[in-house]
Amino acid sequence: MATSTKKILVVDDEDDIRVYLSRLFQENGFLVNCASNVEEALLAVEKERPDLITLDVSMPEASGGKFYRDVKSRPELSSIPIVFVTGVTGPGGSRDTEHFYGSRSHLPPPDGFIAKPIDREEIIALAKKLTGGAAAGASAN
Amino acid sequence: MPEILPDESTIALANLGFSCTQLFDEVPCWISIQDRDHNIIKASRKLIADFGDRQQTKCYALYKGQTKPCVECVVAHSFEDGKDHTSQQTLFDKRGMPHDVLVTTRPLRNDSGEIIAVMKALADISSEKELAGRLRNSLSLFHNLFDHAPCFITVQNQEMRILEANQRFQESFGEGAGRPCYELYKKRSEPCTVCVVAETFADGKEHTSEEMLVDNQGREVHVLVYTAPMRDVTGKITSVMEMATDVTEIRTLQNKLADLGQLVGGIAHNAKNILEGLRGGIYVANLGFRDNNQEDIRTGWDMVQRNVGRLSAVILDMLYCARERSPRRLPLSLPKLIKEVAALFISRAAEYRITLEVKADDPLEILGEPKDIHSMLSNLITNAIDACNEDQNEQKPHRVTVRAYPDQNDIVLAVEDNGAGMNSATRDALFKGMISTKGNSGTGLGLLMSQKVAVEHGGSITVASELGKGSTFTVRLPVRQPNASST
User: Fold this and answer.
1) CA distance from start to end of chain B
2) Which residues of chain A make contact with B296, given a CB cutoff of 8 A?
């Protein structure tokens, strides 16, 4: 377990969402760090080198986008998978955000999208897939 | 018409060689030959047919039913000066129908040059006069339409100079004649890069565009422009007519609708976050119950309570914003109210080492709903304290100042902070709702509510802000008139 425990960085400006996702990932065998803004998040990425980042992207042009570009444009960090957790509403829902980032040719598309309200099984399955699986076998429920 | 007698004049006429009787009869106008005493001594067939059954030989009796000669008589003039004369008159035929006629007289002379008679030709110009009348009416109608059409109309030449402009245009953009269109419409010195008038000159087709104009008062006028070529008889385009319809109100409504859509989207987004917080709280509390872990239970339950509170606040704010009503108008001492509200925030400000001061010493009274003004003030002071907290410059001594002072016919209430300030995008979007820089502590509707309070009290709210330097929210409320009554 010790060698394969995966680290997730949760980036969200909402305290409750950070607590929620932390506990959810911990329950499923991940180690979790949190950041409430992009400056904190960048420091944490550099220091902790997480295996996965979940990033709250409220609006396509908001600061979460800048963080994404910063990480993905730095060779030493760009291989860290980033999952967007988005509550963007509108006719296209989260697909609009997906399209926005997916259409920027100079950046790779994000490694996953999770729409709010969060489906716990979906986010855990995605986290396991992207990190190569967590050691603990706890349930997502 | 009496039979024409072979009198002296007739014989003289015969001597003149006036033998074109047939021509005389066939000419498509009324012709008579008259002596000095206004007697008709010869009349064309058409004249007899149309005027001839009155048994009159005097021209004034025959043509006008008068008993005396006309005051101005062109026949008499021709007898006097031997020249041709013309006049316009109204005659009445044998059925009493009026005819507008052009009268031309010509003296007839004998061999010795003496005037022995005058020939009078009467051309019926009734239809021409009617046409002229119709033309006049059409022109007047055209001018009325041109001037009062609910759009700005100009006629322009190839250099975009205005040849004609309707009244509506002149009222909004000034005297147009001779000046370039872009000077009046856009207050610029160069032609526009894309110009529908130029396009119509180039291809002879109609073009449309949407433009933003600036009127004489400096107001922006949003218009739909339509151009059409105007051609001469050879088909050459001599000018272009440009019609611009004011759609500012429609655009304003569209923008308001778009803002409303954005607001609803923002509320839904906010609601999703609250829901997520609730679900998270339940999840964490459930973990606590499962593992008998008091800390998880407490954390989860706090999350649930907090998010229920947030949801309540959002719903109350939404209801407040949606409610249409007129506030009560009670006399209020603004300095007293400000001091009361500020007192509620003193300890919170102190906790963050922010100085909160009130500068409202003038006795200022307004009419309003105390609860509303209280909410607005609380909201503005909360925002100011939060803006100081968000400031990255932690060394700066932060200060929030609430002022009230009279200014002309208004009372000004200003809440100033030297906190984080805003960029222009945030500033522009402020009063549209759902702008919250406070993560999960705000409903995003506070400023929208403050604006509603200010407007409902006959006032306004504006903001000046600079990123890194701070913001000032200024509320202007009408001063209470000495004789104003409260309801």
Assistant:
1) 91
2) 23
Classify residue A73 as exposed, middle or buried by CB count within 10 Å of its CB (0-12, 13-18, 19+): exposed
Angular region, A71: left φ>0, alpha ψ -120 to 50, beta rest: alpha
Among B75-89, B207-221, B334-348, B441-455, where is mean pLDDT lowest? B441-455
What CA–CA distance (Å, rounded) separates B466 from B388?
Answer: 13
pLDDT above 70: percentage of residues in chain B: 91
Report the topology of domain A7-131: Rossmann fold (3.40.50)
Residue A62: how many other CB atoms lie within 10 Å = 14
Report DSSP state, residue B340: H
Radius of gyration of chain A (CA): 14
Instruction: Name the residue in chain A with its Cα closest to that of B441.
Output: A14
Which ipTM score applies to this complex?
A: 0.83
Q: Which residues of B touch A117 (CB under 8 A)?
A: 272, 275-276, 279
Of B265, B273, B287, the CB nearest to A14: B273
Check if A117 contacts B (Cβ < 8 Å): yes
For residue B245, the tally of other CB atoms under 10 A from its CB is 14
* Signed CA dihedral, B14, B20, B21, B25: sign only: negative
Q: What is the pTM of this model?
A: 0.55
Q: What are the structural domain ranges in chain A?
A: 7-131
Q: Do B273 and A87 touch (CB under 8 A)?
A: yes
Tens of pLDDT, residues B336-372 = 999 999 998 888 888 888 999 999 888 888 888 888 8
